[in-house]
Amino acid sequence: MPYEKELSHEVFEKFQELIYHEIGINLSEHKRTLVQTRLRKWLIKFELNSYSELYEKIADDKSDQMLIMLVNAITTNVTSFFREDSQWIYLLQNIDTMFDRENKRIRIWSAACSSGEEPYSILMFLKEHLNDFHKWDIKILATDISENMLQHAQNGIYEEKNMQSIPKHMKYKYFIPAIGKNGGKAFAIKDELKKYIIFRSFNLVTGDYTIFKNKFDVIFCRNVMIYFDRKTQDQLLFEFTNLLRKGSRVFVGHSESIQNKKLNYKLVSPSIYQLK
C-alpha cells in the first residue's frame, strides 16, 4: 500500500500540540524529520496512507497508550543503575541529616522511574548505608507514564550488560540469576526488596497531585525537564513544593536546573536542590 512520504508542517503542528497538551513535551520544528522517521513504520504497521490518518488514530485512542508509544518513540529512555555518581556521594555524605531519624521514616519519590534502575538503586543504597535499615519505615514511590516501562520495572529483570554499574558484591547480594528476554544471562532483583517500592502510572503534566497524602524527603526527577518548556518546568516544580517537607531535596539531571527564584529552592550541590 502506498503511503505518504513526508510529514507536512501542518500535520507536524498537530502532533506538536497534542504532545505538548497531554505530556508537556515541547517539540521544536527541527524535530520534524526525527518524528517523520520514527512514525514512518507506523504507517506500514497500521496500513495507513498518511500521517494525518495516524494523527487521528492516536488522538482518538481513549486509552492514551498510543500517545505514550509515540512519546517513547521520540524521546530517549536512557537509564542505568547508580547514574550520576556525584549525587550518590552527596547522599552518602548527608544520609545522617536528610531523613526523620526520630520516627525512622523515609519517603522517596522516583518521579520518572523508567525501567526501574533508579528506585532499585535508591533502595540498595539505603540498605548498604543506613544503620539499622530493618528498623526504618521506608517507602519508595516509583512512577512513570509508560505502562511498558512500569511492567519492566516491576518484573525487575535486567540483562547482564545493564548490570555493569553495580558493584560486584551488591549484584550477588541483591539479585539472583535469571533468563533474559532473548534467553541470555540476566539478573532479577530479589522479591524481598520489591516490598519497599510502590509502582504507579502517573503523568507529571496532567496528573492529579492531590492524590499524594504524605510529604516526601527526596524527589528524584532526573532528565525529564529537558523535554519541557520553562512554563511546564515551573508548574512541575511548584507541585513538588507542596509535596516536600521544608529542607527536603529534589534531584534533577546534570543538564537541568531550577531557575525560578520564586519557587524557594536553593542549590546545595550540582543538580541537587533543597526546599527552603
Automatic annotation (TrEMBL):
<keyword id="KW-0489">Methyltransferase</keyword>
<dbReference type="GO" id="GO:0032259">
    <property type="term" value="P:methylation"/>
</dbReference>
<dbReference type="InterPro" id="IPR036804">
    <property type="entry name" value="CheR_N_sf"/>
</dbReference>
<dbReference type="InterPro" id="IPR022642">
    <property type="entry name" value="CheR_C"/>
</dbReference>
<keyword id="KW-0949">S-adenosyl-L-methionine</keyword>
<dbReference type="InterPro" id="IPR022641">
    <property type="entry name" value="CheR_N"/>
</dbReference>
<dbReference type="Pfam" id="PF01739">
    <property type="entry name" value="CheR"/>
</dbReference>
<dbReference type="InterPro" id="IPR029063">
    <property type="entry name" value="SAM-dependent_MTases_sf"/>
</dbReference>
<feature type="domain" description="CheR-type methyltransferase">
    <location>
        <begin position="1"/>
        <end position="276"/>
    </location>
</feature>
<dbReference type="InterPro" id="IPR026024">
    <property type="entry name" value="Chemotaxis_MeTrfase_CheR"/>
</dbReference>
<dbReference type="InterPro" id="IPR050903">
    <property type="entry name" value="Bact_Chemotaxis_MeTrfase"/>
</dbReference>
<dbReference type="Pfam" id="PF03705">
    <property type="entry name" value="CheR_N"/>
</dbReference>
<protein>
    <recommendedName>
        <fullName>protein-glutamate O-methyltransferase</fullName>
        <ecNumber>2.1.1.80</ecNumber>
    </recommendedName>
</protein>
<dbReference type="GO" id="GO:0008983">
    <property type="term" value="F:protein-glutamate O-methyltransferase activity"/>
</dbReference>
<keyword id="KW-0808">Transferase</keyword>
<dbReference type="InterPro" id="IPR000780">
    <property type="entry name" value="CheR_MeTrfase"/>
</dbReference>
